[in-house]
Amino acid sequence: MKTKMFAVILMAIFTVRGYSQTVTDGSTGSERTFSLSKNGKVKIELGKAVIEGHSESSVIVTSLDSPRKADPRADGLVQVNGLGLPDNTGLGINVSQENGTMVVRQLDRIDPPNIKILVPEGCMLSYDHQSPHGSNIVLKNLKGEVEMSTNHNDVRLENVTGPITLTSIHGDVDAIFGETVKGPVSIVSVHGHVDVSLPGSLRANLKMATKYGELLLDPELQIDIESQGKMIRYNNQIGGKMNGGSDTNIDLRSDHGKIYLRKK
User: Fold this and answer.
1) Cα separation of 100 and 15, whole Å?
2) Which of 184, 185, 159, 188 is nearest to 172 (CA)?
3) Among 148, 141, 154, which Cα is nearest to 125's?
4) What pLDDT is recorded for position 7?
5) Cα–chain-centroid distance for residue 151?
6) Which of 202, 191, 176, 184 lies closest to 253 in space, CA to CA?
7) Fewer CB within 10 A of the end CB, N or C, for the chain?
């Protein structure tokens, strides 16, 4: 009875409902393609990844790792993680559908696979990785909302528009925004630096704060620093308006690191 029940549980786990999957083999390794429902959300829980927006409506997952040496003892077996989720892609990750959200999780807690994920450029993206065993995360060419929470990952954003809410405990954050910026934008690193490049013509309300670091501004940016009476707030915290301000709010914070704000 227990054996039959276990078999039923495994069958349920291995069934990915709500979208289709196709498999192709390319020069960069095995590739998996998943269809995403309109206005779908993608949640990624990986320690190492390149996440890039593309014009297609599907989610394409590719391994960037070199082929690993086969373990003859594992022949006929499938890797699972602590949640009981199996590797249902052959890439060392699990992809499942949960309440309309596509969730991508790694299986190996200590040694995460290096994964590239192409997502619809306008979809909502959520990234969460709290393990200390993390590496670089790159997000590029995204036009939708991004929510990120990391512990040790360094994060690089390239050609993103926002809205963005990003919090990192120990990682550095480097962000280069596209010509269009949609607020609100909140980028926080407790122990790492925050380095942000914005288009010089952007109209925005700006806040920058650090407890033990420094604030460094590009003099070519047109920022009117707010004053309190006869004193101008500076050093650990400033507020101001870029090019007269607008409804776009940008909040940058690093408690123990430096904040760099550059003209793109």
Assistant:
1) 15
2) 188
3) 148
4) 41
5) 12
6) 191
7) N
Residue type, 201: S
pTM (predicted TM-score)? 0.85
Residues 6+ apart with CB under 8 A from 68: none
User: Rounded to an integer, what distance in angstroms lies between the CA atom of residue 229 and that of residue 258?
Assistant: 27
In Å, how far are 113, 197, 236, 255 from 212, measured between CA atoms?
35, 22, 8, 6
What's the pLDDT score for residue 227? 67
Cα–Cα dist 173/127, whole Å: 14
| Residue 82 DSSP label | T
Confidence of residue 24 (pLDDT cuts 50, 70, 90): very low
CA-based angle 222:223:229, to the nearest 5? 145
| Six-digit token string for 21 | 């999957």
- Rounded to whole angstroms, the Cα distance separating 99 from 1 reads 31
Which residue bears the tokens 């122990």? 191
| Strands of 27-98, DSSP E | 29-35, 41-45, 49-54, 58-63, 93-98
Residue with tokens 């604030």: 215
